[in-house]
Q: What sequence folds into this?
């Protein structure tokens, strides 16, 4: 796992400035504290910050081919690198390290840009081909690892994080009005857009080829959908057990300490159970809040928002059943506002929810014990973990992203969602200038049309989730992990498992109204060590801290300070009126009326962190 950055000069000017390149690499030091390296070859400069997981002694980057014709910087893990290496050695390719990075470089020597077809894993990399004077940027199929780029002043800049692009000598990119509108309307920017003007995200499953002639972006993989789903499988639970077990075993390979997230839900618990069979005494990790546990101790059947039961209790139950070395952390709230700024700096965008506080600290605490963490991310999107399939029962009634919702303007709590904020508080010129409704409708229509090949409504919605929501969840995992120099692996998202899952008919995954029926059936049949209480637990997201106490009041106070960036986007009088609605209100357990406040606060802090004086 690493951070990578680079510059390709495309207008005939002198070679890359080494100090500028080093500054871009230094901006990614948190992603790779183990080694820093740079390479300059005429118009091309590369920088790497390495988190050493495979071949710690020999895999430092950049890596150059023996003849000097090719060079690579790489972020991620290629899980089939040992098999690929054996095949390449039989073709005469020589290796000097045990690293997967060198395997990718030699695979390019054998296959050119189509080397991506042979890679299984999570990756973002850049390969400079000095003979052809071309630069190849590539990103893994699901977008587990990030890669951004920007064209400015006759140069192409690329990096794992936007802060490295901002460390170049070019003018810093300002805020993108379209990206901000998308954040408020859908929760995050869509497709290749970011919140920084002129900065693009290389889409998952795509490569970019750059040369003096220009840039060419091409898709090399997409979820293959077909009208006829896979032939009926008499034992889909058994097949899932085989696939997921194989994925976990592959992803346990590391030359560094490894553990697993144990959230208390079925997704991460299944991964932990499979890993614990291979690694006796596996380290597992969970976070919680004292007040949250007290709420559920007083009333175990209580539901707060979408949170069902105490995660910490379920995680302890799983750890005891699996015999793991369990680490449970109770998070304080005294540093939460300062931590929000830190999280935003790492995320490079406003937070999606306050629950990210838990993700951030889970990584921070796990890193004290391990360097690699297995996660349950991706299961919801593949196996029916959301309510959308039942709320929107057919294509005719699905005309926009089903997880994007607004509330009734006449309601007593309005505004609640970020869309409510956009439509009730935004300046008319901001709404009109971004044309956010038409823009987001066009994104939905394009993806919905692309998924029309399947006749299975559940798979069609899953496709939407994989192309949008999953992208954001994976970025969240990557950024919070890398903030603490922790590599996070996602066994559910082997691309062949994704292809298999989206070919299964709905009745094989969710015959009734229970989330993730197939995953639960697999756990009952093949993981008998798991308690039935945990396997049957209703889906529950990672919770925010319930006891917001003075948190909301502090947010309101900060949003009233002079120099408010939101005044350029929102009507100041209406915004002040919204903030006044919190005056004198009891600030107890978090509820829906705080969601809009959180969105406003996150957006204001993003402006101040990245564009403040």
A:
């Amino acid at each position: 796992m690493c951070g990578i950055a680079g510059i390709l000069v495309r207008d005939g000017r002198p070679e890359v400035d080494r100090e500028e390149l080093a500054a871009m690499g230094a901006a990614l030091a948190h992603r790779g504290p183990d080694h820093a390296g740079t390479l300059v070859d005429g118009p091309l400069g590369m920088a790497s910050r390495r988190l050493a997981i495979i071949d710690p002694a020999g895999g430092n980057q950049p890596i150059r081919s023996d003849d000097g014709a090719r060079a690579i910087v790489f972020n991620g893990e290629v899980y089939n690198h040992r098999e690929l290496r054996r095949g390449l050695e039989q073709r005469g390719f020589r290796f000097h390290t045990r690293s997967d990075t060198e395997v990718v470089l030699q695979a390019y020597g054998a296959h050119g840009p189509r080397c991506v077809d042979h890679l299984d894993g999570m990756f973002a990399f850049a390969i400079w081909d000095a003979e052809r004077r071309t630069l190849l940027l590539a990103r893994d199929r699901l977008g587990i690892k990030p890669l951004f780029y920007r064209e400015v002043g006759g140069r192409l800049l690329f990096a794992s994080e936007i802060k490295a692009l901002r460390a170049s000598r070019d003018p810093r990119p300002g805020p993108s009005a379209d990206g901000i509108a998308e954040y408020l309307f859908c929760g995050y920017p869509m497709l290749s857009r970011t919140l920084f003007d002129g900065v693009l995200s290389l889409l998952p499953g795509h490569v970019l080829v750059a040369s003096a002639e220009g840039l060419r972006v091409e898709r090399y993989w997409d979820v293959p959908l077909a009208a006829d789903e896979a032939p009926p499988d008499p034992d889909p639970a058994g097949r899932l057990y085989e696939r997921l077990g194989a994925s976990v075993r592959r992803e346990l390979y590391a030359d560094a300490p490894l553990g697993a997230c144990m959230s208390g839900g079925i997704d991460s618990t299944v991964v932990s159970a499979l890993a614990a069979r291979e690694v006796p005494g596996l380290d597992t990790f969970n976070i919680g809040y004292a007040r949250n546990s007290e709420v559920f101790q007083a009333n175990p059947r209580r539901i707060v928002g979408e949170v069902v039961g105490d995660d910490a209790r379920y995680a302890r139950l799983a750890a005891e059943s699996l015999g793991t070395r369990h680490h449970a952390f109770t998070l304080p709230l005294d540093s939460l506002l300062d931590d929000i700024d830190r999280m935003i700096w790492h995320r490079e965008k406003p937070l999606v929810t306050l629950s990210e506080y838990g993700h951030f600290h889970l990584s921070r605490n796990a890193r004290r014990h391990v360097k690699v963490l297995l996660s349950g991310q991706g299961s919801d999107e593949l196996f029916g973990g959301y309510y959308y399939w039942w709320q929107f029962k057919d294509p005719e009634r699905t005309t926009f992203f089903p997880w994007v919702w607004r509330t009734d303007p006449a309601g007593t709590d309005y505004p609640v969602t970020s869309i409510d904020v956009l439509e009730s508080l935004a300046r008319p010129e901001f709404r009109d200038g971004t044309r956010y409704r038409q823009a987001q409708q066009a994104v939905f229509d394009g993806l919905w049309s692309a998924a029309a090949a399947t006749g299975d409504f559940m798979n069609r919605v899953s496709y939407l989730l994989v192309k949008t929501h999953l992208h954001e969840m994976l970025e969240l995992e990557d950024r919070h992990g890398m903030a603490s120099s922790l590599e996070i692996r996602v066994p559910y998202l082997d691309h062949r498992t994704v292809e298999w899952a989206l070919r299964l008919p709905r009745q094989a995954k969710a015959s009734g109204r229970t989330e993730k029926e197939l995953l639960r059936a697999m756990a009952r049949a093949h993981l008998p060590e798991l308690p039935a209480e945990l396997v049957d637990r209703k889906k529950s997201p990672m919770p925010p801290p319930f006891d917001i106490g003075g948190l909301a009041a502090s947010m309101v106070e900060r949003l009233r300070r002079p120099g408010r960036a939101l005044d350029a986007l929102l009507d100041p009088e209406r915004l002040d009126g919204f903030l006044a609605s919190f005056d004198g209100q009891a600030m107890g357990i978090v509820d829906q009326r705080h969601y809009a406040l959180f969105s406003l606060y996150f957006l204001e802090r993003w402006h101040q962190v990245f564009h403040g004086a």
